[in-house]
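Help: read this over?
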Amino acid sequence: MGIETGIVYRIDDQDVITYVNEEWDRFANANNGRSLMSHRVLNRSLWEFIQDAPTRGLYRQVLKRIRDGRCVRFHLRCDAPGVRRVLAMDIVGSENGGAQFHSRILSAEPRTPVAVPGTGTDSKELLRVCGWCNKVFIGGHWEEIEDAVEKLQLLQRSIVPALSHGICDPCYVAVKETLTDH
């Protein structure tokens, strides 16, 4: 993702994705996200891509804020197997009750590639991962992905569990504070 341009996408007043910039497809393609290419996400509801209730709730609050004339900014992790990335996300209102999302890379740090859970179509097991910091919920607490790979022996498995995205308590609190501070 270009640091200067970043990824931009827009939703309408019904939360349907109506626009993605060229960087969207470049980023999806570079990160094995073929299922997220523009032709697969355009004209679909944003909510089809946000699965868990706490994250949906936060995004609903964010959208209410921006539709009331405010802008919202937060940081989130967006890792690849060999890179740890921190992104800044800016969300602003657009005409007719829509919203524009703009994310850009703040930092990218190479790391030893780790197994990234896939679609897990053959696995009944789910790994809960925070959509903001990418920590994995195991043993009653949140762990960095590298630690989870080792503890769960993901590299030794023939089938890696599917992901279930959520939000950890510290990230939930941080995003909630973002909504009340502005």
In short: Residues 7-181 form a domain with the Beta-Lactamase fold (CATH 3.30.450.20).
